[in-house]
Amino acid sequence: MRLRSAPLGVVITLSLLVVAIALTATVRSFAAPSGVPAWLQAHVGDSDGQISQVVLERARALYLKNVAQGAVRNPCYFAMDATRPGDLGNGVLGRRYYVVCEASQSFRAIASGHGAGKNLKGTVDFSNGRRCSKNFGNAMDSELTAGGAYMTRETKTSFKGFYRTGAKQDAAFLRTFIQFDGQGEAANARQRVIGGHAAQVLRAMCMRKSPNSSYADHDGLVPFGKLVDYAGGRSNGCTSWSPADAQQIISMVKDNPTTLYIYPESHDIAAVAQAAKNHSLAGTNLYWNASCLKEIGAPKFWPRKSLEPMIAQYKKDHPAAPAQPLPMCKEP
Asked: How far is Cα 41 from Cα 188, in angstroms, rounded to an integer?
């Protein structure tokens, strides 16, 4: 039997068609992923410690896309649901930050802070309470959480000062910061210095004589303060964790970047806000934590193009007082 060859143009056309179909299927698989492993699906739900379906689907799609592109080799990825409460009351923190490692079939839900926002009195109020987030945005100096796709990048450890650990015993407070790079509306994450770190800070700062310290300034002084843990509080727009959780997360991503997906995005917020006018999301395919939605009424996204001019004008009308040097500590 004699085989007849097809014209070259037909072969090329058919080859391109096959490639196009394959690429289309790949894009669709990332846009609407399916086949979530059964062990991981068991963690899906809206209760504390569970991850809501839409949050998992988007976080997983982002991770798989970056793995396929060769941008991520880390076996784990992160997600955060900023619609959930950060404080459940009675000293119990809401678990709304997720660490997923599919290769080892590991899933963890931990506590995380949300952006506090600000109340520019007499101008505009886009502040958030301790429990739930009502306001979101991507404006500079807004201290708001912006949802969307992120990638963990470099880590930087900084000396913040000394604090008292016991009778006449002090320790240096070193805090590591993970820089995030965002996409889309979160693309200015680096400009906003958005990232992740332990929810700890030094308060009531003063300066103390310690000329032999490697951290001493040219006058032989070092900063000293009280170490405060605000794991159950709010942040300046960054993602913050308990010291123990922060240590684990930092070790996972140091020199080994991975993806982080934060829900909700601006289009989610707009859709939920519209539906909230009817006082219910029933009958829609929209998602928001029911407890927080009841508390906040309706969420709002503040785009940078409208909020940044208001913040700039407020700063102009209310200039900050000149920075003052820290006082000397009264105690030795």
From this structure: 33
Q: Please give the model's pTM, rounded to 2 decimal places.
A: 0.87
Q: How far is it, in rounded angstroms, from Cα 296 to Cα 280? A: 13
C-beta neighbour count of 319 within 10 angstroms: 7
Which residues on neighbouring strands pair with residue 157, listed in sequence order? 176
Which segments of the chain does DSSP mark as H helices, in order?
8-31, 38-41, 53-68, 243-253, 266-276, 290-296, 304-317
Token duo for residue 48 = 């504390």
Nearest C-alpha neighbor of 162 from the set 174, 149, 153, 171: 171
DSSP state, residue 322? P
Task: List 106's β-bridge partners, or say none.
Answer: 101
CA–CA distance, 43 with 49 (Å, rounded to integer) = 8
Pick the CATH number of 32-317 from 3.30.470.30, 3.50.50.60, 3.30.420.10, 2.40.440.10: 2.40.440.10
Q: Computed over its alpha carbons, how large is the radius of gyration of the chain? A: 24
Per-residue pLDDT of the chain (332 residues; tens, 9 = 90+): 433 334 434 333 333 333 333 333 333 434 444 589 999 999 999 999 999 999 999 999 999 999 999 999 999 999 999 999 999 989 899 999 999 999 999 999 999 999 999 999 999 999 999 999 999 999 999 999 999 999 999 999 999 999 999 888 999 999 999 999 999 999 999 999 999 999 999 999 999 999 999 999 999 999 999 999 987 667 777 889 999 999 999 999 999 999 999 999 999 999 999 998 877 788 789 999 999 999 999 999 999 999 999 999 999 999 999 989 999 999 76
> What residue ranges in the chain does DSSP mark as E strands?
76-81, 87-89, 92-93, 95-101, 106-111, 119-120, 124-125, 135-137, 148-166, 169-182, 195-198, 200-209, 221-229, 239-241, 259-263, 300-302
Three-class DSSP category at 317: helix
Torsion 126-127-132-133 (CA) sign? positive
